[in-house]
Q: What sequence folds into this?
């Protein structure tokens, strides 16, 4: 099984930036897939020096995947929206793609329904 940086951060009770730093420094072996890193279970166990404890099975996990398209977005609007979303993105995975020629922004948000709803309220308020 492979883990994302976010999953490793959750497992080790660390901040995502800390785990990324370990990967960049070469202290934690990872494979880059596109724009993300994947860490194998064996490499994670080698890093921690112990086998991973089995996590109790959760009865239910809910995650929302949302794509938001915003047209007629100027560069200053993009910067303002990006800053606001980055500040409110705790616990979310988010990517943005801006097409300057079309002045079009796509935002991909993955996370819990509540946190995703909070991010969507930020988008609504700023657009």
A:
């Amino acid at each position: 099984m492979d883990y994302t940086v976010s999953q490793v951060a959750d497992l080790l009770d660390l901040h995502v930036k800390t785990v990324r730093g370990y990967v960049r420094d070469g202290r934690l072996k990872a494979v880059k897939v596109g724009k993300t890193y994947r860490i194998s279970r064996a490499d994670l166990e080698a890093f921690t020096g112990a086998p991973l404890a089995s996590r109790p099975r959760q009865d239910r996990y809910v995650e929302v995947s949302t794509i938001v398209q915003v047209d007629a977005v100027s560069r200053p609007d993009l910067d303002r929206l990006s800053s606001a979303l980055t500040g409110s993105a705790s616990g979310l995975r988010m990517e943005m793609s801006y097409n300057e020629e079309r002045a079009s922004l796509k935002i991909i948000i993955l996370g819990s329904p509540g946190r995703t709803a909070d991010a969507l309220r930020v988008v609504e308020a700023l657009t």
